[in-house]
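Hey, I'm writing a tutorial for new members on how sequence and structure tokens pair up, and I'd like a real worked example in the thread rather than a made-up one. If someone can provide the structure for the chain below, I'll link this post from the tutorial.
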Amino acid sequence: MIGRPDVTVIGGGLAGCEAAWQLAERGLAVALVDMKPARMSPAHQTPLLCELVCSNSLRSDDPEVGAGLLKRELREVGSLVMACADQHRVPAGSALAVERFGFGRAVTTRLALHRNIRLERRVIDRLPDGPTIVASGPLTGGQLADTIRGMLGGERLYFYDAIAPIVAAESIDMEHAFRASRWARDTATDHSGPPAETASYSSDGEPAGDYINCPLAKEQYYRFVAEIRSARKMAAHPFEELRFFEGCLPIEVMVERGDDVLRHGPMRPIGLTDPRTGTRPFAVVQLRPENRYRSAYNLVGFQTRLAYPEQRRIFAMIPALSGGEFLRYGSVHRNTYIDSPALLGPEFELKQRSDIRFAGLVTGVEGYIESCAIGLLAGLFLAARLRGTACPPPPPTTAMGGLYNHITAPRPPSQSFSPTNINWGLLPGLGRKVRKRERKRLLSRRAAGDFAAWLASVAREAA
């Protein structure tokens, strides 16, 4: 059991857990403080650390996709979150999805048993003295939120994230659905031009693929859109400002932008062929496994704030889900983030109080692995500082560097700050025009070399 900690980490989500792990692995005594189960947020249901409250997918694992590149970097630097995610992954095509309870138990166990970590289950209302990382997440509330708000001079922003519904596998009508992953190809090895739009099959002739696809004909799709548009939505509280994240819009917000927005978004049929008809559906709802047993599936991209009875009625219009048993309906939760470029220094330290650092979603990144990456960097920066050295930031040509620059680079007064997940737009270009597929390959290759050089420099500084 550790005595007086060198560092206090507030928050047991992905950012806080990753920061605590990186600090402890470098010999520092860490007090990891999490309010659960003494107090539960509206989104949490278990006392586990790193509880995934939205989707169980950490998105693409292909290093030629931004999210996959970030995962590769996290693995290379020794991420606890990635090690536990890889241990508890479930089938999801080229994506990395996890069995959420096994994942949470693995993270909780490894942190609780670490000789340099003291896990404290209590509500914290004020910031402690000494080095502290605040990774309390986007649902920070109570007296702690008031303390942070007062410290930041009242600068606080809002946007809304939404949770997708989950349906029981046995209630899906497979007479009106088919199994296939989009493009039906091996993305890790096939880079030879545009993929063919064909469904994949196993050796015994049965349809293969990690996703269940629920097609809709043209008339069905437009009726579906009309019902979403006219359905009753859960109203926001009078004191809440609706500010949705563009990468995670509720379906009812999308339909307000046009009849075909869903068909070009989460319901896009591109890359899928219905083996029963040999043609591409007009629109399709994709279902992704929620656990390793494939007993439950979530509706991909179907975040929503529709009232529960309306969800039950409208989702039954999808032929494959006409008798669907919904294990969880969609809902919304508030996310809060700070104006990081204006408030934080180059190591995520608060400019007006350098012993306080921020990490995770509250800094203005969006997504599980993005939160993990910022927590990991916060841990590396603080560990180096406390040991009398310095950890250089990752190069801007890497995924971590792109996120780092997003939350630290100064912005002109006319440019507002808003959350983002990892994407190629955060990395500098190649300086010449290249075809899209080749450009991603070259960006990924450049990032790999620059990240390896950065890791070597970090090791030299630590020696």
